[in-house]
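Incident log, structure service

09:12 report received: a user says their structure output differs between two submissions of the same chain.
09:20 pulled the input from the user's history:
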Amino acid sequence: MDKNKIVLFGTGAFAEVAYWYFTEDSDYEIVAFTADADYCKTETVLDLPLVPFEDLEKSFPSSEYGMHVVIGYNKLNTLRFNGYTKAKAKGYTLVNYIHSSVKIWQNNKFGDNVFIFEDNTIQPYVEFCSNIILWSGNHIGHHSKIGSHTFITSHVVVSGFVEIGEFCFFGVNSTLRDSIQIADKSIVGAGALILENTAKESLYIGSKTQPVAKKSTSVKRI
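09:34 re-ran on a clean worker, output below:
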């Protein structure tokens, strides 16, 4: 297999963004896009061929090309999980993308199909399972574990010794205290503060800021 030539599985906005990251900040060459036949509404994406996944091996066999599944968090990451599972079943090697600005330690561990954007702080002894998206600007504390099929947005703080289950979602600016467990299929909303273990398939919403009536529209000079 030519490890530098890969197909992107997905056609949405994240697929377009991922194309530029792979192209501008990695040694990989994107040669085509793929999706299930029902989602192939055009013949090309970003001037590259869009090939129905059902027919992909005819032009881009798994023995010669790698793949990365670029599907977002729709239906709590299950659409990305489905693509991931189908790609693995056909024997495709699922590559990782880690932005060149991100410091990786020798004791960090990674599964496959992991996508990590710029400006992420990853401390020693962090383990990433598979099929994870880590958007820009997060802090992942030491000795933590991120479960498979999870999506972490931006400016999320994961403190040390946190264990995150599978199929989880974390909104912008959410915070997890140290030494807690986040159960499978937990949804942590934007700005939420989690101080204790979560329950499976639970939803945690941050406090919404309420508008305050103004007493005057004039600006006091100091």
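09:41 both user submissions now match this output. Likely a transient worker issue. Closing.
09:42 reviewer note: The mean pLDDT is 95. Residues 5-89 form a domain with the Rossmann fold fold (CATH 3.40.50.20).
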